[in-house]
Amino acid sequence: MEIIYQSTRNKEERATASEAILKGLASDGGLFVPTAIPAFSVPFDQMAKMDYCQVAFEVMKLFLTDFTEEELKYCIESAYDKKFDTPQIAPLREANGVYYLELFHGATIAFKDMALSILPHLLTTAAKKNHVGEEIVILTATSGDTGKAALAGFAEVPGTRIIVFYPKDGVSPIQEKQMVTQRGKNTTVVGIHGNFDDAQNGVKAIFNNRELAAAMKEKGFRFSSANSINIGRLVPQIVYYVYAYTRLLAAGTLGDGECMNVVVPTGNFGNILAAYYAKCAGLPIGKLICASNDNKVLYDFFQSGTYDKNREFILTTSPSMDILISSNLERLIYKIAGEDAEKNAELMGALARTGKYQITEEMRGKLSDFYGGFATTEQTARTIKELYEKTGYIIDTHTAVATSVYNAYREETKDQTVTVIASTASPYKFTRSVMTAIDPRYEPMGDFELVDELSRLSETKVPGAIEEIRSAEVIHKRVCDRDQMQATVEEILGM
Ligand SMILES: *Cc1c(COP(=O)(O)O)cnc(C)c1O
C-alpha cells in the first residue's frame, strides 16, 4: 500500500514520504500526516527474532513507501551502527518492576539520536530521489538535546549545512558545552536571548517567509527542518516501541497479543505520538501515559480539553520538556477531529491568535488511550533518589518525571499491565541535577567532578560523548536577540 502524506491544515497539500521529509513543514504551516496509517505486516513473534536494523526496516518500509528497499536499508545501516555503544541500540533495563527503554546509547546520549542519526541519510536520499540540486540548510530550534543530536548527525554530510538556535540560559551546562564545541565546517550554533518557544517561533517564521525562500533559491540554498515535526524523525521513533515490545515477547515477559503500557516524558509530543502511531498500526499498547514537568500544558489539556499556553514559562531540571507549545500535538488533534483539516486549522488558528483552543466533547472521547500526569521538580528529584536507593539504578531528570507520573498512575489505578518507560537521556547529561537529587552535598562540586562521582555511584563507564567535551575548545560563540534570528541566518549564509 502506498502511503501519501497531507497537511493537517489542508487536505489538498499532498506529498510522498520523501517530499514530506524534504519539506519538513507543509507550506500552509501544517504538519504532514499519513492519509492512512499502515498495519504491521510481519507477526511480532517473528520480529522478536530480528535485530534492531531488521525491525527498523520492517517498520519504516510501511511508512516510507517511496523509498526503495536498497535506499532504506542503506539509511538504516548508516544510522544504527558503531555510533551506538551497544549492539542492541535501545536496550531494556528492568528496575523496580518496570522496564526502562534506554534510548540514550547514541552519539549524544539522548533519545534524539534515535531519529537524528538516520534523518541526514533519509534527507540526502530524498533530495537525490527528487532531483533537488540546492544545498540543504537545516534550521533547528532546540531546547537542548535536538541541537547536539542534529549537529552530530549532519556535521560534514555533503550537500547540507546546519544552523542551530538554542535559548542561551535555558539549557544545561553540559548540553551547551556539547553544542558549542561541535566541529564541522557546515555547522553553526547560535544562542538567543529568549526561551525555547521564542527560538521555535523564530525558526517557524523564517520557514514561512516566502520572500526569503525565493532569495535562498537564487543563492542555491533551500531550508529543511530537523525538528521533531519532520516525519523523517517521527517514523524512526515508531521503531523502538515495536523493538521493545518484541524483546519483551522474546523474554516471555509478555504473552502473545498481551498489551504493554508506555510512559513517555513529553515536551513537543513527538516521542509519544510515535507510540500512538505504533498503536494505531497494531502494536498492542494499552495506555499511553504522557508525563509533563511543571510546564504542564499537556496535563491540563488531558484534564480539561482546553489547550492553553497563556501561563508562566518555568525553567525546570528537565529542560528538554520545558515547552508550552507541543507542536506534534497538532497531529493528534487532527486525528481526533476525524481527520478534518479545516477543523484542525481553525483550532490552530485560535492557538496562534489567542494562545488557546478548546476541543469538543466528541474529540475528548477519542483521547481515552491517553493518561496525562505531571511531576514537580521536587517530586522528580525525590524519584531519582528513591529509585537509586532501592535498586542502584540512576536515571536522568526527564526519565524521572516519567517514573514519578507512572508511580502515581499505578497508585491511582492499580493497573498491573507490563510497563515500558521511555528513558530519554543518560544521567550523565544532567549530572548536576541528578547528583544533587541523590545528595545535596554534591552541590559545590564542579561539573566534571560530578561526572566521575556519578560513574562511581552507578558503576557505569563515563560515556564517550562526555569524555570528549572535557577538554574540547569552544568554537561557536555567536549570540543574538530573538528578533535578529533571520538577519543572523542571512549573515551566516552570506546573503
Ligand atoms: C526531546 C526530549 C524529550 C521530549 O520529547 P518530545 O518528543 O519532544 O516530546 C524528553 N526527554 C529528553 C531527554 C529529550 O531530549
Describe this entry's structure for a reader.
The structure is a single chain. This protein has 495 residues and is of the alpha/beta class. 44% of the residues lie in helices and 17% in strands. The radius of gyration is 21 Å and the shape is globular. The termini are far apart. 53% of the residues are buried. The mean pLDDT is 95. Bound molecules: pyridoxal-5'-phosphate. Pyridoxal-5'-phosphate binds next to helix 12.
Observed structural traits:
495 residues, alpha/beta, six-stranded mixed beta sheet, five-stranded parallel beta sheet, 16 strands, globular
Concise summary:
The chain has 495 residues and is α/β, with parallel strands linked by helices.
How far apart the termini lie comes to: 43 Å
Compute the number of strand runs.
16
Query: Treating each run of at least 4 consecutive H or I residues as one helix, how many helices?
Result: 22
Bound molecules: pyridoxal-5'-phosphate
Strand content: 15-25%
* Oligomer category: single chain
> Percent range for helical residues?
40-55%
Find the structural class using helix and strand composition: alpha/beta
Mean pLDDT: 95
Q: Which segments are poorly predicted (pLDDT under 50) over 5 or more consecutive residues? A: none
Q: Which strand order does the major sheet show?
A: 4-5-15-10-11-14
User: What Rg, in angstroms, do the CA atoms define?
Assistant: 21 Å
- What is the makeup of the main sheet? 6 strands, mixed
Q: State the shape.
A: globular
